[in-house]
Specification:
By secondary structure, the chain is mostly helical. It contains 16 helices and no strands. It has helices at about 1-25, 35-45, 50-60, 65-80, 85-95, 100-110, 115-130, 135-145, 150-165, 170-180, 185-195, 200-225, 230, 235-240, 250-255, 255-280.
Length: about 290
């Protein structure tokens, strides 16, 4: 009886000691790299960039071989305006993970102020490594639009939409690129998708209204003064002659034919936008 009681007391005492040590250790445990990176995200969302940079530095110190830690530090340093150190951290992240699409996105962000061409190259590389990387496509589109390279932005549009066909930001960005290249019809179509996907997008409604006003002005100028009409109509539109005409190219090349073609295209666009508008309206309860 005595030996059994002694053994029982020993087991209980050992359990209490283990519990106490575990409780005490929680105050001295060093946070892991994922914990630091999570803190970086939260602090960044709260606008506390300096605190986020501190957490990113702790993540790098905890594991210097972690590519994500270097990438997050690059982003935080870039936000603080320390571009040189940000680029170094971004380059270090790519050295550790050269095939990581996200690492190239981080370096693209870090280099945009100092070298836009390199930033675009890194964004393109990120898309090559991860075609499904939405941030890479969005970043490259942003760089192209800001640089005034609208034709390249328009060419990027279909590739981005192939990955994100129902994304409002993608359609809106492509619409801006198309409008800048003069393809108002395609721009209006993508803005129509924006209205359908997000019916409360007032900016999209305003942009469509502006495009239609511009197209109507060109339409009136064409019929008022047909001379020079073909120069006002984008080449892409003039090439879209109706199939029922015997000689579409001849029609598009003539002044009167160009005006007629533009009128048909304008009316077709109006009908399409009307369909988009009706589709974007909330359903009525029966």
């Amino acid at each position: 009886m005595t030996s059994s009681w002694t053994r029982f007391r020993f087991i209980i005492g050992a359990l209490v000691i283990v519990w106490a040590l575990n409780s005490l250790a929680t105050f001295f445990i060093i946070p892991s790299v994922p914990q630091h990176l999570y803190a970086v995200k939260i602090l960044g969302q709260q606008g506390k960039i300096e605190e986020a940079a501190t957490e990113a530095a702790k993540a790098v110190e905890a594991d210097p071989s972690n590519a994500a830690a270097h990438g997050y530090r690059a982003l935080s340093l870039s936000e603080l305006g320390d571009n040189a150190e940000a680029v170094k951290e971004g380059e270090r992240a790519i050295e550790l993970a050269p095939m990581d699409s996200g690492a190239h996105v981080n370096l693209a962000i870090a280099t945009k102020r100092a070298d836009m061409e390199r930033a675009m190259a890194e964004a393109r590389r990120a898309i090559e490594l991860g075609p499904e990387n939405f941030s890479a496509s969005q970043l490259l589109m942003k760089f192209l639009l800001e640089s005034g390279r609208f034709n390249e932005a328009a060419a990027l549009g279909p590739e981005w939409l192939a990955v994100s066909p129902f994304d409002v930001v993608a359609h809106s960005s492509v619409a801006v690129a198309m409008a800048q290249t003069g393809d108002l019809a395609t721009a209006a179509r993508h803005l129509g998708y924006v209205m359908m996907l997000r019916p409360n997008a007032e900016e999209a409604f305003g942009q469509v209204h502006q495009i239609l006003r511009q197209m109507r002005r060109i339409h009136r100028e064409c019929w008022t003064n047909s001379r020079g009409c073909s120069r006002r109509i984008p080449t892409r539109m003039r090439a879209m002659a109706p199939s029922q005409f015997a000689s579409p190219r001849a029609l598009a090349s003539s002044q009167t034919g160009a005006c007629l073609l533009y009128s048909l295209h304008w009316l077709r666009l109006m009908l399409r936008l009307e369909i988009f508008y009706v589709a974007s309206l909330p359903a009525k309860k029966l």
